[in-house]
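Possible regression after last week's pipeline update?

I re-ran a chain I had predicted before the update to compare outputs. Posting the input and the new output here so someone can diff against the archived version. Not blocking, just want to make sure nothing changed silently.
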Amino acid sequence: MGYDITLHPISKEQVNHYVLEPFYNRALVESRINALSTDEDTICFLKETYDDAYESSDSSQHIDCLALSHLAACVSSYIHSYWYSRNVCFSFLIKDNLCPSIFQPLSTCTNDSRLIRRMRHKKFHIVENYMCSGFAPEDKISELADSLIPSIQEAAKRVEGQQLDFVKSQRTALSYVKIMLGSGQEITTPFDEPLGKIEDLLSGDTLWGMKQVLNYCKKHNLGLIEASDLVIPVVDSSAGNPDNFNAAFLNTPEE
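New output (post-update):
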């Protein structure tokens, strides 16, 4: 199946204004939705999205922030441009130690003690389909805009060095290596797969969406939430605003 990732710029203040404040005061939902769109169909869709998120996140003891992150990602698509990334996202790079940890609980977006006490964000990173991340704050995103590509390039050099050291350490297997080379078979090392993975990241448009969203966030001093399968282009399914959707396959201009 893979992962259809969308990367959503949003500020702490916007998460609080559009998602968290209306959670405790449902009378605010209508005005928040009306600020996002004047289209009747879109207003109905957003009302359903708010209702579903609040109903599924709330319980007698705690608030599940995964549903609220989904709502925040959806809401952000009506405020900002957002970007598509197939099978690559910050959560996955963090897992592979190619990116520093940037995500925090959604509770960091509010000062309301009533919310903070009850909010539970059990998973900050995307680990399965139809899931959203925690909130990556503005300062961490700004730093990552400058450091992501150089750090991945450095990781490639480091793994290349480890690969070379491994080959050099196999001096006792030299005769075996010659036999293998003579038979046309490739010599493999434990570092071939991770190096190939990093090289794939640096090739073509693999990181295009991530680079664009980082530039946009840095320019506008915004944080970020990433979502899995909120938009699925192959079946033309979207829970976000299609007018603000950007993707390499659409030949969207670079940010």
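Follow-up from reviewer: compared with the archived run. DSSP finds ten helices and eight strands in the chain. Marking as no regression found.
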